[in-house]
Fold:
Amino acid sequence: MAAHDVYDLAIIGLGAVGTFALDAATKRGLKTVGIDQYAPPHAHGSTHGETRLIREAYGEGHAYVPLLRRSLEQWRQMDSDFGGDVFFETGVQYLGPANQPSMLDTRSSAGAYDIPLRDYSKHPLGARSLFRTPDDWDHFYEHKAGYLKVENVISSILHRAQTMSATIITGAAFEALETQNSKVTIRLDNQSVVAEKVIMALGPWAHHRLAFLERHLELERHLLHWFKSPDNSFKHSEGFLPFVVHSPEGRCFYGFPQNDQGLVKIAEHSLGHRFKHHADMDRQISAHDIASVEAFRDEYLPTLGALKHSVSCMYTMSPDGHFIVDFHPEHQGVVFAAGLSGHGYKFAPAMGESLVEMAVDGTSKLDWSYFGLSRF
Structure:
């Protein structure tokens, strides 16, 4: 490599977080390279599956809300930049026992940040609900929430970054870092790259490539399912909203209005199967996998049609289910994000922007201290 081939910033991993970091870096005019062992967008990690919920009333913790607000600003801008088909502000409905901890936490988060929550019967599209739930359940909605598209957004942003002079290297697996004379050499399986600063967004490969994270991370298998809408009653235009259901047993299911193919996506956020290495991921769908989500359908959405197909995905879990965002403990000028625990995609624009600020400026405008490595 010639001496002049030194990048201002290298980003390892081009899932959602890495892709948005690449976008933020190119907007700053940095000479940037993005690196991925596959050709994104792909289904090997966690950035796939068509759609993701986005909401501000976040029962997972108050510290997330300012980060969500910044991400929502960016998602709305991207929706404008790419001509729509990115962010759909449909509202999101929440259902569960009124005293269920996650329902209480959602209301607490909304109250702390003055986020309006409305009784579902006052929804402007009508009070009719396709859910069959106990009469004493709480049922409210957040009208400024909605859902995001996944794969097409990643493709569009990577293309934009390339047109703004970013370099993208695919088919190159990360192996090691070396620092010397304030520069970082990134050893890949087929070449080396030198940069002043580095962002590591390795997803499910983080705990095997970053030894200091190995004892803090585990992988978890989850499934996404698509059911047939029998009569188009699950369209958003018919009043059906994206949803989060918290069951009395503590299980959490979420889903979306029917897509253009007349399919309703449903997934369970809770009760994933833990495993240690990404190569051990079981991508086959079993009868047991299907039985679980069909039982949910039968109990809560009995008019929904047959299951059409399912896919698997990986969560990279931290011990407490919260993100880990911090500076590398061994290499100066290197920052990382890991352990996004199945709910990181919606935060990717703000996280990517902040990682660039941390790497280049040494600090971020947003407060990520709650997610630091030192808490373990």
About this structure: The mean pLDDT is 95.
